[in-house]
Amino acid sequence: MPTCLVCETPIEPFLSFGQMPIANGFLSPSQVADEYFFELKVAFCPNCCMVQLAKLIDREKMFHENYAFFSSTSVRMTAHFKSFADWVGDRYLSDSDPFVVELGSNDGIMLQNFAARGIRHLGVEPSANVAQVAVDKGIQTVSQFFDEELAQNILAEHGPADAILGANVMCHIPYIHSVFCGVKRLLKPHGVLIFEDPYLGDIVEKTSYDQIYDEHAFYFSAASVRYLADLHGLELIDVLPQPVHGGSMRYVLGRQGVHRVGDAVAHLQAREQMLGLKHSGTYEELRTRVEHSKDALRTLLSDLKQEGKRVVGYGATSKSTTVTNYCSLTPELVEFISDTTPIKQGKLSPGAHIPVRPYEAFTSEPPDFALLFAWNHADEILDKEQPFLADGGQFIRYVPRVEICP
Ligand code: SAH
Ligand code: TYD
Ligand code: ZN
To answer: What is the pLDDT, as a whole number, of residue 144?
Structure first.
C-alpha cells in the first residue's frame, strides 16, 4: 500500500485514470512507439488530509531541456504575476537591499517585475529551455531542481532571502520535506514563503479533475499545508484565493510565532469543513462526478460527430492530457488542437495523438465547436474569440459541467 509523502500514513487511492502519458510530453510521430505510460492514481491521506498522487514518475521525464510549458503565453497571467510581484514588494520587502528567490521561475514571468525594480533576485528553474528565456531577459536564474542542498548553496552565495516564492511549482515537488528544510535554512528570521497552486476546494467544487496529472504530486488545502508547515516549525499566516488556473490559493508561511496569523486562515478552514475536505467520502463522491463527466463529454462529442460537426481543441494544456486519455478522445472526435506555443505545434498530443496546430489553423478554418481545453483562461479567450462567436462558432466546456456555451 502506498504511504503519504508528508506523514507516511498508508493512503487510500480513490480514483484511477488508467494508463497516462507524460502530460507535457508532446511528441513527433517517430516517438510514438517509445511513448512512456504509467497508471495515474490519486489518493487521500486520512491523517494529514493531503490529496496526492499514489504513483510518481521520475522528475527528469517531466522537467528537461525540451519542457513544453512557457508561462508567458497568457496575457492575463503576465498581468497576474505583475500584481503578485507588486504585492510581495509592498508587503514583505521592507529591509534594505532585499533578496527574492523564486522556485519554478520558468521564463521569468514573475521575476521580470523584481528585475525591473532593481531588486536582487534568483530564479530556480530546472527546465533549461524555459530558464534560458529568462536569462535572455536579464533575469538571474540557476537551472537546477530546488532542494535542501541547493538552498544551502544559495545561502552561501547570496545570503538569506526575504521572500521565497513559487507559483504552480510547490505542488510539483514530491520531495517536499527537502524543499521545506531548504526554505527554512534560506529564509531570514522574519522572511516569508509564499506559494500558490490550484486549490483542492475548487477542484472538488468544480469537478476539475483535469488538474490531476503527473506533474501535480499534491492538491493542497489550508488543512494539509498547515500540517506540513507545522512539521517544519513554520506557520500558515495568510491565505488569499486567486481566480487564476480555475481557482488557486496563495499561502503565506513564516517561522512559527513571528507573524500575526490573519483571520482568513480560520475562515478558509471553516470553508474546508463545509466542503468535507477531511472526509474520504468527499473523494468517493468526486470520483462518481468525474465518471459522469467523462460519459457526458463522450456522448456529446460522439453526437456532434454523427451530425457531421467539426470540433477542434482550444489550448494544448497539460490538463487536457488527462481529459483526452481518460475520455478516449481520438482525432476522429477532435480534429486538432490549436495552440500558440511554438514547441507544441506540429507535434501530437500525448497519448491521444491529436495533432497540435498553430492558432492560424483555427482562424483559417474555424470549426463548428471549440473544445475549451484551456478553460482556466476562458475570460481571455472569449474576449479574443468574439469574431468566432459572431460567425456562429460555439465553445464546449467540461468544467464545472459538460455544456455548450454561450
Ligand atoms: N511559475 C510558473 C511555472 C509553473 S510550471 C507559472 O506559474 O507559470 C512549473 C515549473 O516548475 C516548471 O517550469 C518546472 O521546470 C519547475 N520545477 C519543477 N520541479 C522543480 C523544482 N524541484 N525546483 C524548482 N523548479 C521546479
Ligand atoms: P495552461 O492552462 O496555462 O497550463 P497547463 O499546461 O498547466 O494546463 O496552458 C495554456 C495553454 O493554452 C498553453 O499551451 C498556451 C495555450 N493558449 C492558447 O493557445 N491560446 C490562448 O489564448 C491562451 C490563453 C493559451
Ligand atoms: Zn499524510
So the answer is: 98
CA 4 from chain centre, in angstroms, equals 20
Rounded to 5 degrees, φ, ψ at 383 are -60, -45
pLDDT the model gives residue 330: 96
Q: Of all protein residues, whose CA lies closest to atom 7 belonging to ligand 2?
A: 318
pLDDT of the residue at 1: 84
Where residue 268 falls (left for φ over 0; alpha for ψ -120 to 50; beta otherwise) is alpha
Closest alpha carbon to 7 in 42, 44, 51, 48 = 48
Nearest to 300 by CA among 191, 223, 222, 403: 403
State the architecture of 282-405 in CATH terms: 3-Layer(aba) Sandwich (3.40)
The pLDDT tens digits for 22-76 are 999 999 999 999 999 999 999 999 999 999 999 999 999 999 999 999 999 999 9
Ligand 1 in reach of 81 Cβ (< 6 A): no
Domain layout of the chain by residue ranges: 282-405
Q: Is 377 in the pocket of ligand 2 (CB under 6 A)?
A: yes
pTM over 0.85? The answer is yes
The ligand with the least distance to the CA atom of 58 is 1
What residues contact residue 314 under an 8 Å CB cut-off, 6+ apart?
337, 338, 362, 370, 371, 372, 373, 374, 381, 395
- Cα–Cα distance measured from residue 203 to residue 245, given in angstroms and rounded to the nearest whole number: 11
